[in-house]
Write a structure and sequence with these properties.
Blueprint: H1 2-23, E1 37-40, H2 44-55, E2 60-63, E3 75-76, E4 84-85, E5 90-93, H3 98-105, E6 110-112, E7 118-122, E8 125-126, H4 129-151, H5 158-161, H6 172-184, H7 193-197, E9 204-208, H8 212-219, E10 225-226, E11 233-235, E12 241-245, E13 248-252, E14 254-257, H9 261-266, E15 270-272, H10 277-284, E16 288-289, E17 291-298, E18 309-313, E19 325-328, E20 335-341, H11 342-351, H12 353-368, H13 371-374, E21 376-381, E22 394-395, H14 404-409, E23 416-418, H15 431-449
Parallel strand pairs: 1-2, 1-14, 2-10, 7-18, 11-15, 14-23
Antiparallel strand pairs: 3-4, 5-9, 6-9, 7-8, 11-12, 12-13, 16-22, 17-20, 17-21, 18-19, 19-20
Helix pairs in contact: 2-15, 4-6, 6-11
This protein binds flavin-adenine dinucleotide.
């Protein structure tokens, strides 16, 4: 009796659980343990790799350590009551690419950013026409230094590539701060000229009202992602791979790894056998730069600053400068999105939100006056520096090691594949670039599996 009852119960519960499984979203199901491919990371690259593999008829499991998909493309509306991107916000890339096409197809509100212009201040006044002319000269001198070194195939630091006299120009510090710490996330002494030279033109550059993270999230809907499921160990000693997670071990023929180089360098995923030396060197030569956003909300006052425009100001030339440059009132929202990067970005992030917001507000007050303080509502600092799932904003090749990007992209043992922004030459650092590497790796793995 005992066993019949138990059997009946277990048949019922199996049936119930099968029905439940069919109705449950993927994250509530147990992880399939034998897919063709396991993808680590549900950011732009991991999601696109999975889409590509599934389109090619392969079975895929994506494990994601965070409680959401999207990785460094993340939009939320709780903080400011309007869509706010913590990471990628500029839908940027070649003339046409999947995220731009998706945003257009879904009727998202895009605002073209190429040439939106910049308000430049010197102290509390706008730069004069003559000063703006000097800014143009500093910018073009800086670019000519990059171009000359790039054309000659030199992989030196941006600091070493600057022409004589650049450091004496009035706006050398401002130009260097924009291009180094706030674009690449590193200062000129740590920026490889080749990272700039090999970067492709980006004729498409748009802000999207709904948020870039919203596009990536929607692109990933319906994919077999298991969130809150960190990969802790990748064993590639056998024919395929065994990826350990707290939810169990997944065995697959191949593994696509899309975590940042910060995460790889930190060793939070163990490999057996260890990754070969050349791969570890590539990871070491692609440390994470930092771009952090310090965003300020005001109570509707615009301080005479235009909507959808950059705001910068003169800084001394003894860089790295302690500066925060802004995008003012995107889409008419009551926020100024501030950027800090490079060494100063790391320092300010370590100091914490209050210190960062205080600094950024102080910079705004210097420009528009102390009234800014009484009209200030709240501020926010993004947490990419200390987030253990990123440990920075994006990878920057060390001067002399631009080839590390190609080395990181090389598969290991025909079963470990690497995708993501760090290997996205010529769109490295970009969300669109990460997507393209996912597609490419997805196709390679599919071909290999036959
Ligand atoms: C402040 C900031 C501003 C930016 N601005 C722009 C911009 O305007 N335009 C643009 O194109 N790009 C921008 N970027 C860059 C862009 O966000 C990234 O290039 C892109 O999102 C990276 O995608 P990815 O798939 O390579 O990596 P990620 O998005 O980091 O995806 C990797 C995933 O792996 C997960 N993970 C980590 N460890 C584990 C583990 N052990 N197990 C399982 N999962 C794990 C992570 O949680 C993450 O979801 C910005 C980035 C930052 C930080």
């Amino acid at each position: 009796m005992q066993s019949r009852h138990a059997n009946a119960l277990s048949r019922r519960s199996v049936l119930a659980s099968m029905l439940a499984t069919a109705a449950l979203p993927v994250w509530a199901q147990s992880i399939p343990t034998n897919p063709d491919v396991v993808v680590i990371g549900a950011g732009s690259a991991g999601l696109s790799a999975a889409r590509t593999l599934i389109a090619e008829g392969k079975s895929v499991v994506i494990v994601e350590a965070a409680d959401r998909i999207g990785g460094r493309a993340y939009t939320e509306s709780e903080t400011f009551g309007v869509p706010f991107d913590h990471g990628a916000f500029n839908v940027m890339g070649p003339s046409s690419f999947p995220y731009l096409e998706m945003a257009q197809q879904w009727g998202f509100d895009l605002y073209r950013m190429n040439g939106i212009g910049e308000d430049v201040y010197v102290g509390n006044r706008r730069a004069t026409a003559d000063e703006l002319g000097q800014y143009d000269v500093a910018w073009s001198t800086m670019r000519s230094g990059f171009s000359k070194a790039g054309r000659e195939g030199l992989d030196i630091s941006a600091a070493d590539a600057m022409p004589d006299g650049f450091g004496d120009m009035m706006f050398a510090g401002l130009s260097e701060t924009w291009l180094g710490s706030m674009d690449y996330g590193v200062d000129f002494d740590s920026l490889s000229v080749q990272d700039w030279w090999q970067f492709a033109d980006t004729p498409s550059s748009y802000m999207v009202r709904e948020g870039y993270g919203t596009i990536v999230k929607r692109m990933g809907e319906g994919l077999p992602v298991f969130v809150n499921t960190p990969a802790t160990h990748v064993d590639w000693s056998g024919d395929g791979v065994a990826v350990e997670t707290p939810e169990g071990t997944i065995r697959a023929k191949a593994c696509v790894i899309t975590v940042s180089t910060g995460v790889l360098a930190a060793g939070s995923i163990r490999f057996t056998p260890e990754l070969p030396d050349w791969k570890q060197q590539a990871i070491g030569n692609l440390p994470m730069g930092l771009l952090a956003k310090v965003t300020l909300q005001f109570d509707g006052e615009r301080f005479g600053l235009a909507q959808n425009k950059w705001l910068s100001y003169w800084v001394p030339n003894d860089t790295p400068a302690e500066a925060c440059y802004f995008l003012t009132w995107p889409f008419g929202f009551d926020i100024m999105i501030g950027w800090v990067g490079g060494k100063f970005g790391w320092e300010l992030s370590a100091a914490g939100r209050d210190a960062a917001v205080d600094f950024a507000l102080g910079e705004v007050a210097k420009i528009v006056g102390e009234d800014a303080r009484s009209l200030f509502v709240k501020g926010h600092l993004t947490g990419w520096a200390e987030n253990p799932l990123t440990l920075g904003a994006y990878a920057a090749a060390l001067p002399g090691h631009f080839n590390a990007r190609a080395e990181l992209a090389r598969p290991v043992g025909d079963r470990l594949f690497f995708a993501g922004e760090a290997v996205a030459t010529p769109y490295m650092t970009l969300c669109s670039g990460a997507y393209m590497t996912g597609e490419e790796v997805g196709r390679s793995v599919s071909r290999l599996l036959g």
